[in-house]
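thread: overnight batch results

M.L. [08:02]
morning all. the overnight job finished for the chain we discussed friday. pasting input first so we're all looking at the same thing
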Amino acid sequence: MVLFSDYVDDLQKRYNLTLKHKSKKLQLHQQSRIFKKIYAKDIDCPLAYKEAINNIIPDYLLPHGYNDLFSYTPERVRAENLMCYLGQDGTGTPLHQDLCGTMGHNIMVSGSPDGYAEWIIVENRYRDRLAELLKPTVTEMRNIYGHEDALLKTTRRGRTKLTADSTNADSENDSGRHLNMMKNSFLESDRAWLTKGITKKSNIPVHVIIQKPGDLVLIPSRAYHQVRNKGVTLKIAWNRITAQTLAYAFKDQLPLYKIINRPETYKCKGIVAFTVKEWNERLAKMNAANLTSASTSSTTAVHDDIFKCGYDDFKRNSKLLAGLLLKDVIAPELLYDDDMCGVVTDSNSEICSIRCDFCYSDIFHRYYHCEICDQYDLCLDCYSIGRSCQHPDSMKMHQSCVSVDTYITLYYEFVRNLKLFFNEDLVEPGLGDSIFLLNARNASNLATTCRRIERYRRLKSDSFNVLECSHCGLSTDVLKLEECGISLSSVFQRGPCQSLQVAEKDEQILKIYVCINCTSKCRNCSTLCQSEKPLVDFNLVYYVHPKYDTRNKGGFIDSTILKTCDSDNDKARADNSRTRKRGRPRKSPLFDMPKKKAKTS
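M.L. [08:03]
and the structure it wrote out:
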């Protein structure tokens, strides 16, 4: 309790806080006569608390322990996620998921007499039902966007309704997936509260936990949860990453973050690469010493912490990580057309040090950079859907100094060492070859798609939004296609028609577009992905709105800012409706972007 008092005193001095005994509320000196409840979140955990946790928490639950893949990442890229939370009576955290599908841990170390925290937890499988129930009010939408005109549309009877209520498409193509993520994304904005009235009407199973001093709460991966404090409470929280949580992250968390502009923070691709590299080196040493699973039991190999959970768990996790390294880390970065002309290799030897300036995702290898803007970087996902800065035709592809071939070699070595140690094929043989040896015309991965878009924009210059069908010759523009549910990535992720005998690469790019009618009649054209629902008047609730960086121009899903596909008239109208400044972007009042700290619970 002495430590708790010292900790509070230190906070009061650091943030210039005093305690008004009459009101029992902390008061900010800078806001005289204005009393405000304070919930101190994401505070650095004192060293004494960190040491105490190691003595009372089981090893397999410890932060950066043997069952936490954070432990394999270098200090320079590791997010600090062991945080303290000091809250007054009535404070709390709205409904949210822990970052990147991680598993959450929260222990209450102290509190006022009769103080406790009320936890409400909902399993991830009820996400769609939650999204239908938790919708923003007009006031909340106005606070998020700063204006009302783009948020409301008039019905035939003269009433207004939120366009965020639009129905999503169930299509399996890229546009359909974007719509699924966009539907009622207010749930993912960390602004929604689940009330008792809503839970009674919804019939959604809700888990309620009353946490008191000494209680440890474990939050399952991707579970939605909110917290309310009763009395003054002090809690310590941290997240753990495992191979399974990484699989969840790549499956639905990271794609969602890129759409709603939520910072990734944890560098998931980097964690996969660093972990596989470490495990591969340890397996190689054991194989060199003829120590295999047949010659050593799980108990005798426990001295190496990668086997502390047993051989079965290690094999399961290794198979997951090998698949993630291949399909989610390497495959999107491959350039199948071998056209490296104009691709800039960074001189910086550090990887995982760049973040997308539009969606705030962590960039692993390839990305786009604008020299005209003030150090503007864009991830491949944003570039593929049309997001950009003010100079979309001037952006160049950049790549890390570490070649993608390095990770391909790592994948094959890891698969081989796993087979040698366990004397069985844990990874399907030939799986890597089916991806690495793909024909360039059949390639539709992310980097290849982006490269086609980049080359088309350079060849077409000022008319890069105009597309001409290589079969019938009819012209259209990107905006009209997007209104029909055909995204920019849908057009360029398929190669040119096989019936076109065009050898020159530039000519292939110029003839890459085939309209829907001609595609349906041509046997040599691959399918052109189209959403079942158009994207007209569909708005998105962002975690961080792109308008706070005035360099941003939106893609087909960004309906509340100027898009790269907008006409000159749209640009002029947008310029008249908002003031745009050059130079570095101003900070978002909704989100103060940390560099390394990560939000837990």
